[in-house]
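Researcher: Here's the sequence for the chain we discussed earlier.
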Amino acid sequence: MAQVVTCRVKFIPLQLEFIATFVYVYNMKEDRKELWDHLSQLSGNHKEPWIVLGDFNVVLHREDRLGGNPVTLVEVTDFQNCIDNCGLEEIANSGSQYTWNDKQDARIFSKIDKVLVNGEWVDQMPDITAHILPEGISDHCPLVVQMLQSFSRKENQDREAMRRIQMQLQLTPLNATIQKEEKELSDKFRRSIYLAESILLRKQSNLD
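Model: Thanks. This is the structure I predict for it:
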């Protein structure tokens, strides 16, 4: 469909696979509804790490616009509902505060370009950040998505979660629900260790 391209990506250095959806959303509110429905349908079709990024052509928060008309609830409701339905969250970003301006005399600045990820991405993938670069001669600022080199925070969180559930399992060793959760958390911690080691090896090889 228009407004969106979705593909499966394999990040070979870490042997990770994820779904990436690139958006360029229509300007008119009514024309965007088809995309919100499509994204909601995509979110139900897979439970894999998923990143959604691009020009959404709509703000999400009051502080996302400077100048022009004030941000209204009606303006942001459809986008917010889509994010909630898909289980997405915006990743941390740095650099410019706004991603678009109209280049007119009385400037309007907006943050309409975003990078969103689902819960599976947060649980299974290395931490990432989006850096918003100056716009240059364009009216949009480029977004550079970078994978953070340190994976120790996620590894520690997964280790602690595994430790807690294993303590519960010692108290109720025949509890099938806790057994299943312990296996899932152990697998998750194992992936975290692998990712941390892979990133460290890549960092070391770059220094050689």
